[in-house]
Amino acid sequence: xxxxxxxxxxxxxxxxxxxxxxxxxxxxxxxxxxxxxxxxxxxxxxxxxxxxxxxxxxxxxxxxxxxxxxxxxxxxxxxxxxxxxxxxxxxxxxxxxxxxxxxxxxxxxxxxxxxxxxxxxxxxxxxxxxxxxxxxxxx
Length: 139
Description:
Number of strands: 5
Shape: globular
Strand content: 25-35%
Order of helices and strands: EHHEEEHEH
Radius of gyration: 15 Å
CATH topology: Aminopeptidase
Largest sheet: 5 strands, mixed
Helix content: 25-40%
């Protein structure tokens, strides 16, 4: 589907489990189980879904403890809708909400895969290395 940027709207809130699972896979993020999505999505501090008409085509979320630490996760746009500035719109909404509601001094982190780092730099994020290094473990 070809759509101009005026065809898109942002809807605040967590995506549905079905939308979450579908968008992660079609955009190249790792698949998650229904059980994991059902447990995790209600813990979204702030989320946004991009709609093209009534179809969800992108999303992003902020998770965290609500005070000291926040992490931006699940930034993704379906491939056929990429290249239209939707990632920027998602990030702008999430960062604006953090600036509105998160306490001063809150630590906001994210993991930048590939060229996504260039998008995140536009919103004030910088690499932590060499002072610290991101690490992960999957259970």
